[in-house]
Amino acid sequence: MTVQELDAIRQSKKELIDVRRLVKEQAEKLAPLTGYRHQVLVCGGTGCTSSHSAQVIEHLEKTMQECGIDDVLVVKTGCFGLCALGPIMIVYPEGAFYAQMTPEHVETVVRKHLVKGGEVVKELLYKDTVHTDGTITPFAETPFYKKQMRIALRNCGVIAAENIEEAIAAGDYAAIEKVLTTMTPDDVIKEVLDSGLRGRGGAGFPTGRKWSFAKASAGDIKYVCCNADEGDPGAFMDRSVLEGDPHSVLEAMTIAGYAIGAHQGYIYVRAEYPIAVERLKIAIAQAHEHGLLGKNILGLGFDFDIDIRLGAGAFVCGEETALMTSIEGHRGEPRPRPPFPAVKGLFGKPTILNNVETWANINPIIMKGAKWFASIGTEKSKGTKVFALGGKITNVGLVEVPMGTTLREIIEEIGGGIPNGKKFKAAQTGGPSGGCIPASLIDTPIDFDNLVAIGSMMGSGGLIVLDEDTCMVDISKFYLEFTADESCGKCNPCRIGTKRLLELLTKITEGKGTPEDLVKIEELAEHMKSSSLCALGQSAPNPILSTLHHFRKEYEDHINEHHCEAGVCKALLNFSIDKEKCIGCGVCAKNCPVSAITRTDYIAPGHKLASFEIDPAKCVKCGVCQSNCKFKAVSRK
Amino acid sequence: MKQCEAAGACGSEQRKKLDAVIEASRATPGCLMHILQEAQAIYGYLPMEVQKVIAEGLGIPLSEVYGVVTFYSQFSLKPKGKNRISVCLGTACYVKGSDKILEELEKQLGIKCGECTEDGLFSIDSCRCVGACGLAPVMMIGEEVYGRLTPDKVKGILDSHREASK
What we know:
Structural class of chain A: alpha/beta
CATH class of the largest domain in chain B: Alpha Beta
Distance between the termini of chain B: 19 Å
Strand order of the largest sheet of chain A: 10-9-13-11-12
Strand order of the largest sheet of chain B: 2-1-3-4
Strand content of chain B: 5-15%
Number of helices of chain B: 8
CATH superfamily of the largest domain in chain B: Glutaredoxin
Largest interface: A-B, 54 and 37 residues
Helix content of chain A: 40-55%
Structural class of chain B: alpha+beta
CATH architecture of the largest domain in chain B: 3-Layer(aba) Sandwich
Oligomer: heterodimer
Number of strands of chain A: 17
Number of strands of chain B: 4
Shape of chain B: elongated
């Protein structure tokens, strides 16, 4: 394909894509030019697919056929972000945002809205888009979307993820055209360097510097790698980019190949993401067909190809040297650095490795310029960051905000606060390598350096909200179980350290801890941080250290008072029945799995039957009695 | 198990497929992982006999193959159930009580995580995040994701799979 042909595709689908980006009135004017009265976008990301969006599409097409509708386009896109409300369906040009669709709902929308002269079905819209007076706001104006700024996710939920022509019309491959026609490799590196883009995978190393090191390394063979081994549990932004806009990653890797002088790229992706893998395969095949990968790209004389390598479930393979060892087909163990991968990486050749979200930022930087990108964010953290908002929060989903947005804005405004009237306790960022941010620091502007300063880290962008029902000792133990399990075993500080830390934490959660244990934990943690081979071991103590710092009293309560305030640590719990409240119905005794509940002789005043009591020696603290008692007579202390 | 005896045997359908995979990939640098993934798709797991075939096919020591197999959690040395249950124990699911889902599954099936029921119908494993955090807590049975779970939903889901497997 030539540059002219690329431009022809761009123009032919321009209106089609623009309708999905414009506000209602403008979009309505434009819609007739597309040949479709309506466009129905249905999310085909993992979240919505899991809530059966495929059935929604099937039902939609079937009902449309029954109604004789042939001028409405159905598009399967990537993630819209608001996963909690899936499956989601957006109808353009109105921008009507239908949430939690069922086959019945689909039928209603087709018959009342999509038919000629139909109208938006207000009852089925996402509630935040309908005002109390019945008027409708565009979803972009709702609290969840209003504060977001979509750069990396610019095309996610806008284009058909398996259609290269829509990707081109939405702007993909414009940057490779610009790079190959007007820029030298040094220009490209300078642009990325000046933008201030830092790696979105966790550590925040300046991307441009990585590229310039690799360019400076001597050698004919170099490699470009994409880290799509999103191992941090609770983070799914990389998956969403791959599912929603895979071409943005392919294009950016090609640009990097041109910049450093590489002709081969590898994408290392988790096998646990079948939809992402499938879309990547389709995207690579389409890019080949269109001459956007392979020999002589766009007829401009540059060769670049990309292969996919599947991971096999090892968290440590998110570490750059371990990832490369794994691509080479070995046990994914990290290697000491230096030599850094930019000098000696994959198959011993100079290599750059960037994370999916980092790659997704490259096209806008090239197209809009470093200056534009650097104007967004904070002094040392430029651009935006995508967070996977999860845990005890109303709007679970994917959000992209400028660096420097406060935790309060993310949790209270975008996230819609904590459900069930519970209190916010802490936010966990950075996964097993990060830490917990307490409620007192909720106004901290989030960027790479601020998070490190308060004992956590950006990580890949998982943001798990914890409420008052979460025990901070238990949550550190949860992370230590994870790192102890995932430690590759190559170096002692990590292999033995994680195990010993986990033992100490287990002791504390069982009420057997001593004050000296806290001293031991801190000492061991420091050793692990300073002497582990890779980031896994160096950062494994972070969840404990940050919770010890911000929630020390909880640890001390477990040790000194044998008390778990959140009521999570089973060994420290005692269930008892309030004799005065118990009406003697016996539901608790019937449901007790270990027959620990028996009837007493005592009949409380006003009640007819004798009350029950729990034998603490038999009780296994499962909590079944408490959840079954309708009279709140069972208490947990 | 029948499958087990046949594993690696010359001339079987599975063996033919495996040989073809090895032949097609051996020239690619770093092909071992790919071959193991394909082999597991063919046999359902990676018994020692299959590992030997791969080691000989690639001309590398068996210890190297075994080292890679035991490093990655995706590879299994033991056969799995017809319905492979995978409970997400990622953070988002954990704080929403996925440990209680796992407990209920273990209770219902009478096996522990990592084991397979005697009739070969179900096996339970835990996994770290399938990326469907919006639906936490979740589990997968085969390729199907079940979200917004509560312990009382577990029995019904297992029954529907029992029914479908008849």
